[in-house]
Amino acid sequence: RPNGQKLVISTLCVPIRFDGKTVGVVGADIEYTEIQKMLAPVRIVSERASLLLIANGGTVIFANRESDIGKNVSAFLQGQTDEQSVLSAIKDGKPYTSYNRSVLSGKMAMKTYAPISFGDAKQSFSLNANVPVDDMLAEARALTRNTIIAAVVGLILLALAVMWIIGRVVKPIT
Questions:
Q1: CB 102 within 8 A of CB 109
Q2: Which of 1, 128, 123, 120 is nearest to 54 (CA)?
């Protein structure tokens, strides 16, 4: 670029086939900044959840933290027991899900990798969502708490009603 900034792009190519033969290729170069703009508004479960878009070679194309763009995903997997399984799934364009401690927060998180491909292109990407387990279960825990509170209040009211009725029935006749 004229202003001296690095230009980091991703190239998508799809073959053009005619009568079963490849007659050409259509390609498009997409700047990471454009991908960042497209994915930035996407939110899953909570603000603490994060997204990564990873090329099948392991390069991070999109991340919630801009400083992570351009890094290799292996930097986020160091010390994880399933590091090789994740890298293989990304490279092979296969889905993968695991529950591990997050490198960033140190808390348990569900990490899922979903392959994304464009048409007949051989290159695939992987969309990684890291969601803290506490955030995933927050609504269920709140619902459970509210149900227990309602049940206890209901039992207390029922007990009071039964005691009042019993008191009225067995009240000495005067």
A1: yes
A2: 128
What pTM was estimated for this model as a whole?
0.63
DSSP 94-116: --EEEEEE-TTT-SEEEEEEEEE
Mean pLDDT (the chain) is: 82
- The enclosing H or E element of 122 equals none
End-to-end CA distance of the chain: 102
d(CA 148, CA 97): 32
Torsions phi, psi for 30 (to 5 deg): -120, 125
Confidence of residue 153 (pLDDT cuts 50, 70, 90): very high
Counts for the chain of helices (H) and strands (E), in that order: 4, 7
Q: Are 61 and 69 in contact (CB under 8 A)?
A: yes
Contact 10, 55 (CB under 8 A): yes
